[in-house]
Design goal:
It is a single chain. The chain is mainly β and about 100 residues long. The protein has one helix and six strands; from the N terminus they run αββββββ. The protein has a six-stranded antiparallel beta barrel with strand order 1-2-3-6-5-4. The two termini are about 20 Å apart.
């Protein structure tokens, strides 16, 4: 299980094995949504910035803001997500780590 303290850096390598996996996303006042991790980009060393691309449902798209992300082998993380718009699979969201 990916469990990180505030002093431990989360890396791209933590998310690469989770490609194609489903995650639960919560925001205050909204029902839980299911997002799928579709892309992990950035430095493979984990020391540099990287980003995650998720696809969520087209109905009830979420706005830009903090979401609580939980998933396989992942402790809940509060992260800032940005909607990028719809694609052929659903609404796309990006989370950037710097």
């Amino acid at each position: 299980m990916l469990v990180r303290s505030m002093m431990t850096r989360i890396s791209r390598a933590d998310f690469e094995p989770l490609l194609g996996q489903d995650f639960q996303v919560q925001t205050p006042g909204q029902p839980v949504q299911g997002w799928t991790l579709v892309e992990v980009t950035g430095s493979p060393s984990g020391a540099e910035a990287f980003d995650l691309l998720f696809t969520g449902p087209l109905h009830s798209p979420l706005g830009q803001g903090v979401v609580r992300l939980t998933g396989p082998n992942l402790s809940p993380l509060d992260l800032f997500a940005v909607p990028l718009g719809p694609d052929g699979q659903g609404m796309q969201y990006q989370i950037i780590f710097t």
